[in-house]
């Protein structure tokens, strides 16, 4: 609890200790102090309420007080929507068309680029007074709690079209009244999008006004698709200095809050940068004593990096090559003093000692659907969800599977939002619904 209170003070958020104001939660690592959380449930059992979505998206809902915020891409209305739901009742408070209609390259679709994802993949972020929605077409829009628009910017229109193989889906970070948006992209034209010589950058905006405070060019030695990252910046205090940690472009970096300047660098997980097709999806996960876990792509190992007192970074340990402590998409979890790595490519979840990388247990994940949602740790349990909307619950201590709860509809095939919790309630987003689950 002390760690949570410290983070809330240091980030300047006007949220309660139990709120889930960003996609990785109050500790920025997927963990929560939630208690008395249900283990076994269904679409009818232990459901406090359900909210029907008429648009899909991979965005994880965020919560502040009685407000739940989520985005969706409505194919029925052809709109990118920001939605506010009453946490007590599950009723809609307001809905806004948050998209500008900006289109760049691809198939010209207003709500999606290609068939594998849509623009409603990034998660919202809130400080308890306002909420920001970001979409893969570059729209970054801020609203007050009544749904009144405060400011908006389209990053592609402002900075130039993105150069990504897939739909851009990084989630912005809110920290001390500033909103940070990393765009780590390719330096060449991709499928007719972007331009040669594109640079990766971090934009910082005043959260109240939307005024751009700085743009910092982030250099990287990576090549081609390995320059691309879909990760989120994680606020940290390292050696007494508040900063943001970012993974992508074959390196891990710490950044100054006011300028974006690199304070330290570690890299690489890509030896001699020989792999040119290693886009990075899993966000870095903070652990104890300035340790950070980053997962290299496509069945490559995971790496624990520790920042030293002289602001250099060293490799603490590396997981076994071709082992099960690897992730291509889900961000690792840090909970109860350990890392939990959900492997979508090895079909397993593992509990790992953060100091030496020793695997304490590994359990194969059930079923054939991929698990690409990031895990939740709370109440002594680990919650994961697959593309079909099956929620699997494990005992955090032993790794024993406690339950498999089918929450998806028969047609669900791309459920990717992470499960979150506040107090004694779980919130599960499938392709068409949001469930509030409680004992």
What is the overall shape? Answer: globular
The rounded Rg comes to 20 Å
Approximately how much helix is present in the residues? Answer: under 10%
Structural class based on helices, strands and sheet pairing: mainly beta
Specify the CATH architecture of the domain at 36-56 and 365-439: Beta Barrel
Say what the CATH topology of the domain at 36-56 and 365-439 is. Answer: Thrombin, subunit H
Q: What would CATH call the class of the domain at 36-56 and 365-439?
A: Mainly Beta
Largest sheet: 4 strands, antiparallel
The poorly predicted ranges are: 1-14
Q: In what order do the strands lie side by side in the largest sheet?
A: 1-32-31-30
Alpha plus pi helix count: 2
Number of distinct beta strands: 32
Beta-strand content bin: 35-45%
Q: Determine the N-to-C terminus distance.
A: 23 Å
Mean pLDDT: 94
In a nutshell, what does this entry contain?
With 439 residues, the protein is mainly β.
Describe, in plain words, how this protein is organized in 3D.
This protein is mostly beta strands. The chain has a domain at 36-56 and 365-439: Thrombin, subunit H. It contains 2 helices and 32 strands. The strands form 8 sheets. It has a 4-stranded antiparallel sheet with strand order 1-32-31-30, with no helix packed on it. A 4-stranded antiparallel sheet has the order 2-3-4-5, with no helix packed on it. Strand 16 and strand 17 (262-266) form a beta hairpin. The radius of gyration is 20 Å and the shape is globular.
């Amino acid at each position: 609890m002390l760690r949570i209170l410290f983070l809330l003070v240091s980030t300047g958020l006007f949220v309660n200790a139990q709120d889930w104001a960003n996609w990785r939660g109050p500790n920025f690592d997927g963990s929560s102090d939630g208690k008395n959380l249900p283990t076994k449930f269904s679409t009818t059992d232990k459901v406090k309420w359900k909210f029907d979505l008429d648009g899909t998206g991979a965005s994880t809902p965020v919560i502040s007080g009685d407000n739940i915020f989520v985005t969706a891409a409505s194919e029925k209305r052809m709109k990118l929507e920001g939605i506010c739901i009453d946490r007590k009742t599950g009723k809609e408070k307001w809905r806004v068309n948050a998209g500008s209609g900006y289109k760049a390259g691809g198939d010209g679709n207003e709500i999606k680029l290609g068939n594998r994802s849509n623009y409603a993949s990034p998660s919202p972020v809130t400080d308890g007074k306002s909420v920001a929605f970001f979409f893969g077409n570059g729209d970054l829009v801020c609203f007050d709690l009544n749904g009144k628009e405060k400011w908006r910017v389209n990053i592609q229109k402002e900075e130039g079209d993105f150069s990504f193989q897939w739909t851009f889906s990084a989630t912005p970070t809110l920290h001390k009244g500033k909103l940070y948006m990393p765009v780590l992209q390719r330096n060449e034209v991709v499928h007719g999008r972007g331009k040669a010589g594109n640079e990766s950058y971090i934009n910082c905006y005043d959260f109240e006004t939307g005024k751009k405070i700085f743009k910092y060019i982030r250099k990287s030695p990576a090549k081609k698709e390995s320059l691309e990252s879909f990760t989120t910046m994680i606020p940290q205090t390292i050696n007494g200095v508040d900063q943001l940690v970012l993974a992508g472009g074959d390196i891990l970096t710490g950044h100054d809050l006011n300028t974006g300047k690199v304070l330290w660098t570690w890299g690489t997980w890509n030896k001699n940068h020989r792999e040119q097709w290693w886009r990075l999806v899993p966000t870095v996960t903070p652990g104890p004593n300035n340790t950070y876990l980053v997962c290299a792509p496509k069945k490559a190992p995971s790496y624990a990096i520790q920042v030293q007192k002289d602001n250099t970074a060293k490799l603490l340990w590396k997981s076994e090559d071709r082992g099960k402590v690897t992730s291509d998409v889900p961000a690792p979890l840090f909970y109860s003093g350990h890392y939990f790595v959900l492997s979508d490519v090895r079909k397993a979840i593992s509990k790992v000692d953060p100091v030496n990388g020793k695997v304490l247990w590994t359990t194969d994940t059930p079923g054939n659907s991929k698990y690409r949602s990031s895990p939740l740790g709370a109440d002594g349990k680990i919650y994961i969800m697959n593309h079909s909307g099956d929620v699997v619950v494990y005992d955090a201590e032993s790794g024993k599977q406690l339950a498999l709860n089918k929450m998806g509809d028969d047609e669900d095939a791309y459920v990717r939002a992470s499960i979150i919790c506040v107090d004694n309630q779980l919130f599960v987003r499938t392709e068409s619904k949001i469930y509030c689950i409680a004992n």
